[in-house]
Structure formats: structure tokens, C-alpha cells
Amino acid sequence: MTVRLDVITVFPEYLAPLELSLIGKARRDGLLAVHVHDLRDYTHDRHRTVDDTPLGGGAGMVMKPEPWAEAFAAVIADGQCALDADAEPLIVFPNPAGEPFSQPTAQAWSHEPWIIFACGRYEGIDERVYEHLADAGRRVALTSLGDYVLNGGEVAVLAITEAVVRLVPGVVGNPQSLVEESHSDGMLEYPLYTRPARWTDPAGTVREAPEVLLSGNHARIDAWRAEQSQQRTAERRPDLLER
Ligand code: 6GU
Q: Counting atoms of ligand 1 from 1, which one is nearest the CA of 150?
């Protein structure tokens, strides 16, 4: 399966890192297609205006609805041409007021053949854009990375894309590494060690890897790792154990 991602933004250059590393390789391998669109290409005035002052007053600027509606129409038409006339994209608005993004969300979205990310900037997007998409029967998600505020959705798109794309079959070489990592089972990962088993740190302290990891006894190793995972989660993220 090839996954198609569209990103609509006023800062297309912000998405340049999607050429790099694992995501760049997935694109070169034909597992992923990324299309970045400049929202200003869907304006018609000389200044390519995408924002205006908030109705009712208040600080900052609000993104105007018309460029968004035009951009969605064009991007959806283009995607349906490339994929299938009745393909329905998942439209994701990164938004600090959205539902929390987490590993189960990444897992679910890794099965989506087509996601359109819509990056808001300024104070936000005119509410009627969401209403228009919902009335048109579009699948829309408002998604937050956490309880803090970014200047726009672009950095969130980089994070979400990385979390999702690495779960697409074939993107990560050894799929077992996806099973053992933090959050894959709602727990934090156990501590990792490699050679040398006995390491003298720069302060002169001799640091030994846990003996159990050298034992060759896989049942003991699994039990030790499970216990470490449990301890670590209790210490750092007790909220995960309560769920
Ligand atoms: Cl997804 N977007 C913005 N603008 N700020 C955020 C966020 C998203 N998640 C946390 N803060």
C-alpha cells in the first residue's frame, strides 16, 4: 500500500524535513507520497491574504474561510484523481484544542491510505471551515500533541507524520522493534545496554551492565525487562498504569 499525505500550509518550507531519514526513504521506496500545498496559492488578491481580524474583536488574526475551502476542493479533487474517485481522505487539523494524539491514534492512522493535514496559524481558522467540511460528509479530526501551544500546525505535522509513517508496513526494517518500544503496550520501555558489558565512565567509575542480560536465560531476561518496564512506568508515568 502507498500512503498519500497532503499538507496545506502557509509555510511549505517548514515541511522540508519530510525529505529526510526514514520518511525520505519511504518516499523514495514508493511506500509514501507527500504533496505540500501553499494555502496562498488559493487566494485571489494581490497580497495573497489568508487572514483577517477576528469578528467581535480580540487579539491576533483569524484565517479566512475562502482560501481553505478552495484548497480542500483542489487537493481532494487531485487526490481522488490519483487514487480513486471515491477515496475519502482523513482531514487532520493540528490544534491545541483537539483530541490528544497518542500511539493508538498513530496505529489507527497508519492504515489510512490518504491523510490531508491542514495547518492553521495565527489564532486559528474560521469555524465555518469545519462546519462546511462536516456538512460535505468529510472525515475530520482535530488533534493536539499535548497541553502547550505551538505557533502553528507544521511542527505537529512533522511529529504526527513520523509517528504514523514508521508504523506503515515496510517502512521500518525490523517490525519487532515496533512491538518492543515505549507506548506500544501502554508501558514505557525497559532500559537498554550494549557492549562493553563493563564500562569505565569518564569519571573513572566502573559501570556494569545488569548480569541477567549476559546470562543467556531468555525467560529470566524477559521477566527482568517486564519488571523494569513496570517500575519505570510507575515512577515516571503513574497515569499510564491507572488506565
Ligand atoms: Cl497539534 N497545534 C498547535 N498549534 N499547538 C499545539 C498542538 C498542535 N499540540 C500542542 N500544541
A: 5
Strand partners, 118: 8
Write out the E strands in 66-224. 90-100, 114-118, 124-125, 139-144, 198-200, 206-208
SS3 81: helix
Element (H, E) at 35: strand 32-38
Using alpha carbons, list the distances in angstroms from residue 197 to 80, 133, 211. Answer: 55, 57, 9
Cα–Cα distance between 129 and 67 in angstroms, integer? 10
Alpha-carbon dihedral of residues 207, 209, 210, 211, nearest 10 degrees?
-100
Probe target for ligand 1 pocket from 9, 91, 95, with the most ligand atoms within 8 Å of CB: 95
Probe target for ligand 1 pocket from 101, 115, 143, 145, with the most ligand atoms within 8 Å of CB: 145
Position in ligand 1 atom list of the atom nearest CA 120:
4
**pLDDT per residue over 4-28, tens digit each?**
999 999 999 999 999 999 999 999 9
Q: Whose CA is nearest to atom 6 of ligand 1?
A: 96
* Region of residue 99 (phi > 0: left; psi between -120 and 50: alpha; otherwise: beta): beta
- Name the pairing type of β-strands 198-200 and 139-144: unpaired
**For 158-170, how does the pLDDT look when each residue is reduced to its tens digit (9 = 90+)?**
999 999 999 999 9
Question: What predicted TM-score, i.e. pTM, was given to this entire model?
Answer: 0.95
Q: What is the rounded CA–CA span in Å between residue 203 and residue 200?
A: 8
Measure the CA–CA gap between 73 and 69, rounded to whole angstroms: 6
Identify the helix (H) or strand (E) that includes residue 227.
helix 218-236
Ligand 1: nearest atom to the Cα of 94:
1
